Amino acid sequence: MRTLVLNAGYEPLAVVSFKRALVLVMNEKAVVVERVEEDPVWAAAGTFDRPAVIILTRYVRVPGARRVPVTRRGVLRRDGHRCGYCGKAASTIDHVLPRSRGGKDTWENLVACCLLCNNVKGDRTPQEMRWELRLVPAPPRGSSWTVRGVDKSDPRWEPYLALAA
Fold first, then answer.
1. Tell me, what's the pLDDT at 149?
2. Which helix (H) or strand (E) holds 74?
3. How many secondary structure helices (H) and strands (E) does the chain include?
4. Whole-number Å distance between alpha carbons of 5 and 16
5. Distance of CA 13 to CAs 9, 61, 147, 165, Å?
6. For 55-64, what is each residue's pLDDT tens digit?
7. Is the distance from CB of 22 to CB of 16 less than 8 angstroms?
8. Domain HNH nuclease spans what residues (predicted)?
9. Are strands 2-6 and 46-56 parallel, antiparallel or unpaired?
10. Largest CA distance in the chain
């Protein structure tokens, strides 16, 4: 069980375990917005509903622009595990401008790639191969990328995540 944590301004911050959420509620640092009715938590002082969404009682300042770090897993997820060149299932990533030619590890220079295309392309650019990219590589956007742990979301979170998008 996981719980969506909202800032005092209803912006999604993170996803935490229901135990952590319950501690925040018990210490009066958060208030339950949505509950999971089934399977309550039993304690010496009584029973508690499991929180699905909580909101913090005080506003937490979030540092400037949240940048999504570039990872192999993130590039594959952004491209839907599909090769940027042929569209088949991708299992690796490729530098559009090869690293040997000054290509960096950035969202704009990395695409998901199947093993065959990656081996055939080698140390060349798509233009040299006369290949077309199926998509324009760009940094991912949306609350599922900026809010930690939202990749497997709960249907009860959707209204709150839609506000942030």
1. 59
2. helix 72-78
3. 6, 6
4. 7
5. 10, 10, 6, 13
6. 999 998 877 5
7. no
8. 70-119
9. parallel
10. 70
pLDDT at residue 37, as a whole number: 77
Q: Please report, as a single letter, which amino acid is at residue 46.
A: G
Give, for 156, the enclosing helix (H) or strand (E): none
Cα–Cα dist 55/13, whole Å: 10
What's phi and psi for 91, nearest 5 deg? -125, -5
Tokens 């508690």, residue located: 48
* CATH fold for domain 72-129: DNA Binding (I), subunit A (1.10.30)
> Could you tell me the CA-to-CA distances from 147 to 5, 18, 87 in Å, in that order?
10, 17, 28
Give 74's Cβ-side CA count (13 Å radius): 20
Q: Which ranges of the chain have pLDDT less than 70? A: 64-66, 142-153, 163-165
